[in-house]
Write a structure and sequence with these properties.
The protein is built from five helices and no strands. By secondary structure, the protein is mostly helical.
Length: 155
């Protein structure tokens, strides 16, 4: 069934493509943050373990919201690890860096997701899609705050 919400099909496609990238970056960041939560060691173990848990819990909710927005726009959301890794610009971690290395990666990765969200906001402006824009603004706020918290935890 066709989608008739006042957003042209080409704009919905552009929004969906941008959101698919945000979804892939977010899902990749979720996996990395969760892995770091399990494997962090050192003097800051407890505080980082707790912070990583807070962040991956937020990311778990976010991936669902982003995927559902893609569906509401009339497109299928990517849903496999291979699709996410193909679309994501966040590098998967295959080892276990020290706590500082984890923090550095997560700062960089949260900033990457912020930039991907910002690119979607530009498309939202053209399409007059305030719903997607609101979602992206919320996600940018969450990622900027996460990056700040992570950055502030580096000693």
């Amino acid at each position: 069934m066709s989608v008739h919400t006042g957003i042209a099909e080409d704009q919905r496609k552009a929004l969906s493509d941008g959101l698919a990238k945000v979804l892939a970056d977010t899902y990749t960041l979720l996996g990395k943050t969760h892995g770091f939560h399990w494997n962090v060691t050192g003097a800051q173990f407890h505080s980082l373990h707790e912070m990583f848990e807070t962040q991956y819990t937020d990311l778990t909710t976010a991936v669902d919201e982003i995927a559902e927005r893609i569906r509401a726009l009339g497109y299928f959301a990517p849903g496999s690890l291979s699709q996410f890794l193909k679309l994501s610009t966040i590098e998967d971690e295959h080892g276990v860096p020290d706590a500082r290395g984890m923090l550095e990666q997560l700062v960089r990765d949260n900033e990457t997701v912020t930039q991907a969200c910002r690119a979607v906001v530009q498309i939202c402006d053209e399409a007059n899609d305030t719903v997607t824009e609101d979602l992206m603004n919320h996600r940018m706020d969450a990622h900027e705050k996460a990056a700040w918290m992570l950055r502030s935890s580096m000693s």
